[in-house]
Amino acid sequence: MTDFKTAQVRHHRQNIERYCRLLATELTDLERQYLHKRIAEEYAQLQRLEGTASRASLSALLIGSATETTDQEADAERNGGGCERALLDGHA
């Protein structure tokens, strides 16, 4: 049972990370809205599995998963398109 739960948690985290990487690319407003919605859904499922996750643990997850930042990702962060901000804004 624990292995299945661990796999589910890992799956949701990987999805969140993938959507965050996509947010750092050139997207239409509709695509960006869709990704924000999917991130919120994945995060809600992750919270349900893990219990209530703190903002600090979410920040650690997102920062820890980004080993390198491309110029495009850095631009997105400076322009407020970062995933951490998107998640925290949606769950403040």
Please describe what this structure looks like.
With 92 residues, this protein is mainly α. It has one domain (2-90). It has helices at 2-23, 29-50, 55-65, 71-78, 83-90. The chain is built from 5 helices and no strands.
Tell me briefly what this model is:
It contains five helices and no strands. With 92 residues, the protein is an all-alpha fold. It starts with a helix and ends with a helix.
Provide the fold topology.
Layout: H1 2-23, H2 29-50, H3 55-65, H4 71-78, H5 83-90
Helix pairs in contact: 1-2
Order of helices and strands: HHHHH
- Which residues sit in consecutive blocks of at least 5 with pLDDT less than 50? 65-70, 75-81
Helix tally equals: 5
Helix content: over 70%
Provide mean pLDDT, rounded: 74
Number of domains: 1
SS class: mainly alpha
Shape: elongated
Main sheet makeup? none
The number of E-state strands comes to: 0
The radius of gyration computed from the alpha-carbon positions, rounded to a whole number of angstroms, is: 13 Å
| Relative strand content | under 5%
N→C terminal distance: 32 Å
Keywords summarizing the entry:
0% strand; 77% helix; 92 residues; mainly alpha
